[in-house]
Amino acid sequence: MQDEGKTETSLAGGYTNVVPVDRDKLANLGVNPQVCKQFALSQNTVNLNLVEFFHALPYFPIAFVKQQDNSYTSCAVLGLKIAENLFTDEQGNWLKDTYCPAYIRRYPFVTQSVTVAELGLNDEDLRKPVFVDKAALDEDSPALFVANAKATPEWEAAESFVSDYISAEKQTLLFTQKLDDLKLLQPFDAQVHPDKGDMVRLKGLYRINENLLNKLPAKVVKDLMMSGEMSRIYAHLISLENFAKLLDRAAA
Hints:
Blueprint: E1 18-20, E2 30-31, H1 33-41, E3 45-47, H2 53-56, E4 62-66, E5 72-77, H3 102-106, E6 109-110, E7 131-133, E8 137-138, E9 145-146, E10 150-151, H4 153-181, E11 185-192, E12 200-208, H5 210-214, H6 218-226, H7 229-239, H8 243-251
Antiparallel strand pairs: 1-7, 2-8, 3-5, 4-5, 6-7, 9-10, 11-12
């Protein structure tokens, strides 16, 4: 979760020194896994694509966040405080048998986010320049590129993952745009009441209004069911019970 009123920019939050992927300039540099673990350790809210909802449901609250262009993105809430991730250990290792969102696994690579204006483009036309957080690169890790700018399997795997992420991001934006058009999204403060200590209030989140959902015309409901989007809507609503699990994790 971010500070109230703060949203993600065109490039992902949490990155410190983003540069374009240049095969010549990045020759013999690889991704330092320890820096990646520190990145994961500091994330308390991360973008979550629609294809991940069922994977995330057993673990995280799934909410929505409004972006600077007034579009929405779905997110997984990982902690109750800024820079708190309750799903890593103190070294940043992801907890065993717990789903790790693609946003975390994509680091240190990133592209500009898909925009509403680009929703009509096919996946090929959506290809975007790839950037990398230079802070995560070093000469001791398996290289992304070697002599004569030749790509290694490490880069090919990363490039493929980023390409798949863009496609999933477009699908997610189509979904949240539909929720917005149907006027189903409403702001809410998640209030978590510990047995001891002050109440924790998370601001800047949005959820689907279940009462408005139940009043949708039958044709709209059928379309949501046929597209598989209704099941994701209920995954979101059920996942909100996971705020209590976050409190349990924080207490532990």
